[in-house]
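Hey team,

Filing this mostly as a record. A colleague (T.K.) asked me to run one chain through the structure pipeline before their review meeting, and I want the input and output archived in the tracker in case anyone asks later how it was produced. No errors, nothing strange. Just documentation.

Input sequence:
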Amino acid sequence: MIDVLVADEAEAVVVARKYLRYLQGPTSAWEAADQRELRHVIPENRVRAYDVRTVVASLFDTDSVLELRRGFGEGMITAFARVEGRPLGVVANNPAHLGGAIDSDAADKAARFLQLCDSYRLPVVLLCDTPGFMVGPESERAGAVRHMSRLFVTGANLSVPFGTIVLRKGYGLGAQAMAGGSFKAPVFCVAWPTGEFGGMNLEGAVRLGMRRELDAITDESERLNVEATMIERMYQAGKAINTATFFEIDDVIDPADSRRWISMMLTNADDSSATPRRSFVDTW
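Output structure:
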């Protein structure tokens, strides 16, 4: 239930003031890190983990990020930040937890944060790197379908502009949830060159979809080689550059160019109405 954990009352006052400033408009003074560093954040090995908080800290204005509810829903990062002094909300998958899969807590956390941004007229940037929604008996016992559906319902009814950047994995319904329900819904939906797309995790798709063919291969070494070949074939087909040729996403961009896309969205944002569309935000 804690948005930001602090050590004492003095720090609480400082953080509360910082929080409120995001709701009071842009600031004139700002700095940003060298955006070329973003080209090296995602490992070349597609199955290696990385710290998405490094992406967030580098992408947005220096020292402008305030992460909320860090101790809850670890698979999702929600934060306020700024680009060129202009405030916005950030939702990012955390690939260091469950590989970025969205579980019930992460879905609740993100959906509630989207409501908060919508209520205070803050545009949103979603950083997608997810194999999809978490599945399995434990997930089902947590009522996953209802929790995860909140992302679709909330995303489809946002009145503020939002954009999606696919950092790496963009699989299944989880990826669509990180784009307001459809890759066509955001103001922009772009991918870094490391982006990859598919109906589900590629390894799982091969092992489930080609189970009979693989089981028929008695030699274990040969079976593993065939499996690896199939996975690589699917990876090549689902690479961001191939996906873009079918107009599934708007573009494949240089990571260093990400801020320009965000700035474009903020510049064109319709802020003519000072009255929030939402009259309340879920307590949860």
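Quick notes for T.K.: The chain is about 40% helix and 15% strand. Residues 61 and 72 are 25 Å apart (CA to CA).
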